[in-house]
Amino acid sequence: MARNGGKFPLSVLTGFLGSGKTTLLRRLLSEPETVKTAVLINEFGEIGLDHLLVRSVIGDAVILQNGCICCTLRTDLQQGLRDLIDGRADGKFPDFDRVVIETTGLADPAPIAQTLLLDPMLRHQTRLANIVTTVDGIHGAAQIKKHPECLRQTAIADRLMITKTDLISLETLAVLKRDLQRLNPTAKLFDVNSDIFDAAGLLTEGVSDPESKLREVQHWLGSSAETHLHHHGPGEKHSVIHSEDIKSFSVRLEGDIDWSAFGVWLTALLHRHGDRVLRVKGLLRVADARGPIVLHGVQHVIHPPIHLEEWPDLDHSSRLIFVLQGIEPAVLEESLIKFLRAAAGPAAGGRN
Length: 352
Hints:
Strand content: 15-25%
Number of helices: 12
Radius of gyration: 21 Å
Structural class: alpha/beta
Number of strands: 16
Largest sheet: 9 strands, mixed
CATH architecture of the largest domain: 3-Layer(aba) Sandwich
Order of helices and strands: HEHEEEEHEHHEHHEHEHHEEHEEEEEH
Distance between the termini: 48 Å
CATH topology of the largest domain: Rossmann fold
């Protein structure tokens, strides 16, 4: 049975050419935690299923001995997911608890996330758990600098899985982890060769999971502080520039935020510049709310707001973290603060 109110956690597995997506998928399908996983993939023959014991073949789907399903995506994504979910309901496919979509090596995962969040039927039946990006431990740093597709895959991810770490030195791995954290400060980093392989952390846990949402937000805030992105007020901000035009940036706002005014500002921003707001994550302190509102968006689309019953730490200020492409953080910050002050009226004139 699907977890969390009947919605299937759905993960997008992406990564640049040769970065190890297929190898990771093979391993994920072998893990005990991922039994009863359904996979949508361009060609399931490419992942080599012999070691997983194929039980039966139904049309474009392979049923594995452990209950996992691999389906070839012959139609568009929306129809493919509908066919998969309907096939489960009709008894054509065995029961499954989660869905993984593997993209091609040059794919931008953002449109896939937008499709899942905007389609009424899919939004009712699935929840976007994580965008997982594989990063080549040997060539990843050079690929991120050279290929825009790789850069965007990395910047948009919720989970970054570093592959081929057994072929690089500990020093090289440490430098790569540091650079990835600066590029995407809220993403969780994983080592494919770690002694602890956390399949659930990759595919299921996240801010949309009621069981792990508080831990996820705590990670966002902790990672943001560790990479010195904290912003306390004018003159104290720091942006980390990763390429000529991609920057990670954070804003802190004291006092209650007008939720309606903030929504108008964010809607206008995404309408005009959504393709350049790669990620936005954060907490908002809203009047009359017991806890904060969690914000989580990919380009033009914002996930449904999540209300926390308690604050994840002692700091009750609003904190927003952006990954921007071709937008100056100072301009965005000034726009936000001016808009909120105007909405609050003269009494807010002295707010930081």
